[in-house]
Write a structure and sequence with these properties.
Rossmann fold, alpha/beta, 5 strands, globular
């Protein structure tokens, strides 16, 4: 991740299988203590797969933003749109609705950003690009993550430039991006186990 986003000190705190409620639950332990200036969040897809509505996903996103604001009022939050996984294409309408609600919510707040990865992951036929996914048609392969990096890099670079010219960067709050993007190696159960033993 450090080589993908040079100039930005990144911390990976994502975990696989998470719903937004899990992110909210663990944020006081795995997000807030690091006092990041920027949070990159990917969540919501598992929520829809579990039967939650687009509005429920949006409300939990709002709850996460409120939680962060209480402790870190100036921290920026970048929400990476719910991706169009082929194995979950039946949820495409709900994905679009949830993405739209979250995108519109941040239009008038400069501390909130929305990054559309849904559209670039569709082919000319309007369906998910299978070549971006591994065999399970849910998780991305290297090509899929490379696409995300290409989309996110200029957005995060803009943040680095902004922070370098307009913020006093000190040891209390460095130019840090904390990424809550799922890692294939971690699950909610794994996280529970580690936190219990810490």
């Amino acid at each position: 991740m450090a080589t993908d986003f040079p100039g930005l000190y990144t911390i990976q705190r994502g975990f696989g299988g998470a719903e937004l409620s899990d992110v909210i639950r663990y944020a006081p332990r795995i997000v807030l203590p690091y006092r990041p200036r920027l949070i990159v969040l990917y969540a919501g897809e598992n929520d829809l797969a579990a039967g939650k509505s687009a509005m429920e996903v949006f409300r939990e996103y709002q709850a996460f933003v409120t939680l962060v604001r209480r402790t870190l009022p100036e921290t920026r939050i970048v929400f990476v749109s719910i991706k169009p996984s082929p194995s979950r294409w039946a949820l495409a309408d709900q994905m679009r609705e949830a993405n739209g609600l979250i995108r519109r919510h941040g239009i008038n707040d400069p501390r909130l950003s929305f990054v559309d990865v849904f559209t670039p992951m569709l082919g000319p036929d309007g369906k998910p690009r299978e070549e971006l996914f591994v065999a399970d048609r849910l998780h991305m392969n290297e090509r899929g993550y490379r696409l995300w990096t290409e989309i996110l890099r200029p957005i995060l670079q803009k943040w680095v430039d902004w922070a370098g010219t307009r913020c006093s960067v000190g040891p209390e709050m460095p130019v840090t991006a904390l990424c809550v993007v799922p890692s294939w190696a971690d699950t909610v159960t794994d996280l529970e186990r580690r936190l219990t033993h810490n």
